[in-house]
Write a structure and sequence with these properties.
alpha/beta, Beta-carbonic Anhydrase, Chain A, eight-stranded mixed sheet, two-stranded antiparallel ribbon, 10 strands, 33% helix, globular, binds zinc ion
Length: 236
């Protein structure tokens, strides 16, 4: 894990650090709407539950792979739900694609509860990775498989093959971060609300141990100017 995602920390520590770092700059659960962009996989639900324990009920942004899949109508709903009766409310957005790493170091696999052989994590990103290697990325969105085909077209451009599942997972993170900010900036949410976007990769170890590779926490001021909080620099 540390070779592929150096600086990863337990998910609970990650969320505690986000909570305290954002609390220090005025993010209060009473006036914050959390939006969460993580994969549908049941392995991600502990993370979602912890976000809700710390910040209150959360709006789901993503489908397979963790990249936002809600479309313009969904974004309109999410942004309409930010608290405002106490003045400037806050929008806290998490964007974290995920990957499994088993105890023996196997990347992209998880032995799940009640099973004795591993399955792919993330299943959707693994399927897209396999398609990219075989050259079978679809040419258009399939309405009967729209999340996976749309994601494949988004992540594998011009037949460019990712070198590894880790690279494809980071590409999913890049796409997630771009899409989160595109939606926020298009609606200029920062004019009326504080905005924080936390991006990284969620890593599932054996037996339900969750970790996070924390890549960035970005804030905007009321003009939309972004700055990063350096919350995860390891102390020596
Ligand atoms: Zn997944």
């Amino acid at each position: 894990m540390q070779a592929a995602f150096p600086g990863s920390i337990p998910a609970a520590d990650y969320l505690d650090t986000v909570r305290s770092s954002l609390g220090a700059v005025g993010f209060d659960p009473e006036t914050t709407l959390p939006l969460v962009s993580i994969c549908r996989d049941e392995l991600t639900t502990n993370f979602f539950a912890r976000v809700q324990e710390q910040w209150g009920p959360a709006f789901t942004l993503a489908g397979l792979g963790g990249v936002p899949a809600l479309g313009a109508t969904g974004w309109g709903a999410a942004f309409a739900h930010i608290p405002y009766t106490s003045g400037r409310g806050s929008l806290l957005v998490f964007g974290l694609p995920h990957i499994g790493i088993e105890d023996d170091g196997t990347v992209g696999m998880t032995v799940r509860e009640g099973q004795d052989s591993p399955t792919s994590t993330c299943g959707a990103l693994t399927a897209i990775y396999d398609m990219s290697q075989r050259g079978t990325i679809p040419n258009e969105v399939d309405l009967d498989d729209f999340e996976a085909t749309k994601l494949a077209l988004r992540l594998v451009v011009d037949g460019h093959k990712p070198d590894s599942l880790v690279d494809l997972t980071v590409a999913a993170l890049d796409a997630t971060e771009v899409d989160l900010w595109a939606a926020i900036d298009a609606q200029e949410i920062w004019k009326d609300h504080n905005v924080a976007v936390c991006c990284g990769v969620q890593i599932h170890g054996h037996g339900g141990k969750d970790w996070v590779w924390p890549r960035s926490i970005s804030l905007t001021d009321a003009t939309g100017e972004r700055r990063q909080i350096d919350a995860f620099t390891p102390t020596a």
